[in-house]
Amino acid sequence: YEVLSSDDNSEPVFQINAQNCVHCKTCDIKDPSQNINWVVPQGGEGPLYGGMWVLMQIIEKAFAKVNISLNLTGQKEKNLHYIVSLVSFCDFYDTIVIEESKEFKYIINNDIKFKEPDLILKTIETVSKEIERNFPPFKITLNKEIPIGAGLGGGSADAAAVIRALDKFFNLNLSYDQKVLIGKQIGSDVPSCILS
Fold this sequence. Notes:
By secondary structure, the chain is of the alpha+beta class. 26% of the residues lie in helices and 28% in strands. The chain contains five helices and six strands, in the order ββαβββαβααα. The chain has helices at 26-30, 119-131, 154-169, 176-186, 190-194, and strands spanning 2-4, 13-15, 57-75, 81-100, 105-108, 138-143. The strands form two sheets. A four-stranded mixed β-sheet has the order 3-4-6-5. A two-stranded antiparallel ribbon has the order 1-2. α2 runs parallel beside α3, α2 packs across α4 and α3 (154-169) packs across α4. It is elongated and about 85 Å long. The two termini are 41 Å apart. The model is unreliable at 40-55 (pLDDT under 50).
């Protein structure tokens, strides 16, 4: 679209140049008369042009954390313990990237191999169960910067970031309580990382 000025100093004219349209819908927002009835082309799936791929991408930071204090407050079964912990989040992080793909892809940078079960895959499965439906294909990339096994909560932070990223990418509109509930099913540290 463009706004054209006339030679006689009358009101500017809002002009749609349909031949250049890439269906961004900006014209519908900018049209001063609000007379545009914008309809998604091709049956609701969005525009498809040869040689053109419009990429949607969500990037979530997974901040490392440090336990400032850690106190045991009781013993649970299976030799586990109740704890009260004060944590602080650091200024370095892993990143989780979710983007469109025609098939499911899971990539970890630096060729890092995790022990089973992989928390990223476990998180995707847990969120899917919580919303009671399977996700369409997507690509997820873990850019790992937090050292593994360093006690900096990298796995928990990554799981929390995946929950937030899936929520945004698929417009799940999960409440904070739902995210915490999902996090509890993955690991005890994950709920605190939801807010990081």
